[in-house]
Design brief:
This protein has 16 helices and no strands. By secondary structure, the chain is mainly alpha-helical. The protein has a domain at 64-305. The longest helix has 30 residues, at 3-32.
Length: 371
């Protein structure tokens, strides 16, 4: 058992302990409002995974969280914290909507590669200015990306209301997509075999998200570029002495981070909303930070954490519906507790997790040698 594997197992166990602590305190909160926490959590699981359409909604949310989590993780590997995921997704959403408006005759299967490439390009472009300010002007990425979120939000409002909104429409949204431009939904494909499941927005972008996760894994851990990028984040002085261009690697990581986050615009606009709407990315960018932290900035961990938060999103809606005394604010607090423990207190339980992992591995090794 290598030290890297032991560290990875310790990180996984620490994440599980943080989630357990958050759920425990959430259970105390649910108990305080007069409900049984075991029944409440059973309702969350039932709402998230108990029906086919519930699973569809859970995985749809998880798709967005995979993109935003991967984006944050890529920048985090060079010790940069991209807080501008929502702004980058907004800017990417503009090109997705414009492509759909310009090419109404193009079917989804031909439009999808263009939308994915455009969303990635525009997401990277919106992150390029903060990347320049970080590398050349030594600005803090957190500050610049937060401010760019506000700029993107105001730009979105202007373009939707004054440019893209159809004449005579009062809704703050762009024109609807043609039926042939909408991404196929997985449940509709299943229903074509004679089933009668309730619809859900899960679509083919889930496969794109999994493919991108694998590509990020290969890029970071199986290429020279990935090794240099991780070296730049682990010890920039040593990496610079070894000839790694720190500034260039940092800029590339930030821009690619924006590209990954921008992909969730395709999932929302072509797969769920079927039009450009205000705040279509609201919340997804910041939840992606927690997803990346819980997943230890690794693609596999991010996919698992994205499903967890997708379940909290979908199961929380069922919890509010079935338990009137549990308000939506309680569900938000529960999500906040998971973020708080997995993010703000991510390292608090790590020493205990490492010690427990080391003890278990030592016992396993001793039994193997004794046999």
């Amino acid at each position: 058992m290598t030290a890297h594997t032991q560290s990875a197992l310790g990180g996984l166990l620490a994440s599980l302990l943080n989630i357990a602590a958050a759920l425990f305190l959430g259970g105390v909160l649910i108990l305080a409002v007069g409900e049984n926490p075991f029944r409440a959590y059973a309702a969350v699981l039932e709402g998230a995974f108990g029906t086919v359409d519930g699973i569809g909604y859970t995985l749809h949310y998880a798709t967005n969280f995979i993109f935003s989590g991967l984006g944050f993780a890529l920048a985090a590997h060079v010790r940069q914290f991209n807080i501008g995921g929502e702004g980058q997704a907004y800017f990417a959403g503009l090109i997705v909507a414009v492509l759909c408006i310009w090419l109404p005759w193009m079917p989804w299967w031909a439009l999808l590669p263009l939308a994915v490439a455009g969303a990635a390009l525009f997401g990277a472009a919106w992150a390029a200015v903060p990347a320049y300010l970080v590398v050349r002007r030594n600005c803090h990425l957190v500050i610049t990306t937060i401010m760019f979120n506000f700029i993107a939000s105001l730009l979105m409002i202007y373009l939707i209301v004054s440019v893209l909104r159809p004449a005579g429409s009062m809704a703050p949204a762009g024109p609807g997509l043609e039926p042939g431009q909408r991404l196929p939904q997985i449940i509709d494909m299943i229903n074509s075999f004679g089933f009668r499941f309730q619809p859900a927005p899960l679509n083919v972008m889930i496969f794109v998200a999994l493919a991108v996760s694998y590509a990020v894994y290969r890029a970071l851990w199986r290429t020279k570029w990935g090794y240099e990028l991780r070296a730049a984040g682990a010890n920039d002085r040593a990496a610079r002495v070894a000839g790694v261009p720190i500034g260039r690697m940092t800029a590339q990581a930030i821009c690619l981070s924006g590209a990954l986050v921008g992909l969730m615009a395709v999932n929302e606009i072509m797969g769920a909303q079927h039009r450009l709407t205000l705040d279509f990315a609201l919340g997804y960018g910041f939840i992606g930070i927690a997803v990346a932290l819980i997943g230890a900035n690794t693609p596999l961990g991010i996919v698992a954490a994205a499903v967890l938060f997708g379940a909290l999103y979908q199961g929380g809606a069922s919890l509010v519906f079935l338990f009137p005394s549990v308000s939506r604010e309680v569900v938000v607090v529960l999500q906040g507790l998971v973020i708080f423990f997995a993010g703000g207190l991510a390292t608090m339980l790590r020493p205990y997790a490492d010690a427990l992992t080391g003890a278990l591995l030592s016992r396993s090794t001793a039994k193997t040698e004794g046999a």
